[in-house]
From TrEMBL:
The active site is at residue 161. Gene3D superfamilies: Spermidine synthase, tetramerisation domain, Vaccinia Virus protein VP39. Belongs to the spermidine/spermine synthase family. It holds the Pfam family Spermine_synt_N. It comes from the Eukaryota. This is PABS domain-containing protein. Residues 6-241 form the PABS domain. One of its GO terms (molecular function) is spermidine synthase activity. InterPro entries: PABS (IPR030374), PABS_CS (IPR030373), SAM-dependent_MTases_sf (IPR029063), Spermi_synthase (IPR001045), Spermidine_synt_N (IPR035246), Spermidine_synt_N_sf (IPR037163). One of its GO terms (cellular component) is cytosol. GO terms for biological process: spermidine biosynthetic process. Keywords: Polyamine biosynthesis, Transferase.
Length: 287
């Protein structure tokens, strides 16, 4: 499939049939195949530099904060005192950048299976990749499930920043992976994962939440709005081990930190768990 036609990048995915997202291309910066996937980086006319994996937009400089801030700060501010954080995926560095804004966090470990994503992000997405500069960060180029199996009862927060459940990322949306995260969590810990789109993927979201609800203490769905993701919305599955729900933050950012955010706030934290009626009924069976 040609990704760029007549100067426009076209995102057409199997998980959103019948619709597409297009961005005008100013310049292709990098296009190659890694050991795991097709990697494309281009400068767009209106959204800055754009990272595309296997034909699907992962990051644009214009709106990335709507995703990075929420997937990181929803679990981190819901935890009273996170010390050790694991990020699975997130090779662009954006989640690391946000986790590093929590001064109480002592150790941040990233497991990214494809080093090629890290390399192009450091070169072409420096505003995200600056997350790698924090001295608390260490990077493991390996399978996240294997790392968690070797590090059980270890983390206060686990954040899985994955691409869609196609290709190498498909296992990240299956119950065994959530069981692995549960075992790697400390008591009172929180996991937050990319949870797909309520407009498109309720058939994926509901069975997964039902399945992991048998293991985790609480399982919730929150969401953010982001223009360049399918249907302009992406969700987060937030689950806990030995503690209550995460709808109200346990901590709040300082005024200085809040001034640096472009999307997250304490008010939005709570609001992000309020779902449209159709989604609430479909995911949780509640009227």
């Amino acid at each position: 499939m040609d990704l760029i036609i007549d100067g426009w990048f076209h995102e057409r995915g199997v998980l959103w049939p019948g619709q597409a997202m297009s961005l005008k291309v100013k310049k292709v910066l990098d296009h190659h195949r890694s050991d795991f996937q097709d990697i494309l980086v281009f400068e767009s006319e209106s959204h800055g530099n754009v990272l595309v994996l296997d034909g699907v937009i992962q990051v644009t400089e214009r709106d990335e904060h709507a995703y990075q801030e929420m997937i990181a700060h929803l679990p981190l501010y819901a935890h009273p005192n996170p010390k050790k954080v694991l990020v699975i995926g997130g090779g662009d560095g954006g989640v690391l950048r946000e986790v590093a804004k929590h001064p109480g966090v002592e150790e941040i470990i990233e497991c990214e299976i494809d080093e090629g994503v890290i390399n192009v992000s450091k070169k072409y997405l420096p505003s995200l990749a600056k997350g790698y500069d924090d001295p608390r960060v260490s990077v493991k180029i390996m399978d996240g499930a294997k790392f968690m199996d070797e590090n059980q009862d270890s983390f206060d927060v686990i954040i899985t920043d994955s691409s869609d459940p196609v290709g190498p990322a498909s296992v990240l949306f299956e119950t065994p992976f959530y069981n692995a995260m549960y075992k790697s969590l400390r008591e009172g810990g929180i996991v937050c994962t990319q949870g797909e789109c309520m407009w498109l993927h309720l058939d994926l979201i509901r069975p997964l939440i039902d399945s992991i609800g048998k293991t985790y203490s609480t399982v919730e769905y929150a969401y953010t709005t982001i223009p360049t993701y399918p249907s302009g919305q992406i969700g987060f599955i937030i689950a806990t081990k030995g503690r209550g729900e995460c709808k109200k933050p346990e901590r709040q950012p300082s005024e200085e930190v809040q001034d640096g955010f472009q999307y997250y706030s304490t008010e939005l934290h709570e609001a992000s768990f309020v779902l449209p009626a159709f989604a609430r009924r479909s995911i949780f069976g509640k009227k």
